[in-house]
Amino acid sequence: MDSTYTIVVPDGELVSRICGANDSNLKLIEEHLGIPVFIRGNELSIEKDDTVLRQQFKFIIDRIADELSDGCDASADMVASILQTETHTSFEESSITVPGGIRKVYPKSHRQADYVRALRKYDMVFCSGPAGSGKTFLAVAEALRLVMSHKKSTLILTRPVVEAGESLGYLPGDLEQKINPYLRPLYDSISFILPREVMKRLTESGVIETAPLAYMRGRTLNDSVIILDEAQNTTCEQMKMFLTRMGENSKVFITGDATQIDLPKRTRSGLVHAMQILSGIPDIARIQMTCEDVVRNPLVKKIVQAYENDEKNE
Question: Using an 8 Å Cβ cutoff, are 75 and 108 in contact?
Answer without folding.
Answer: no
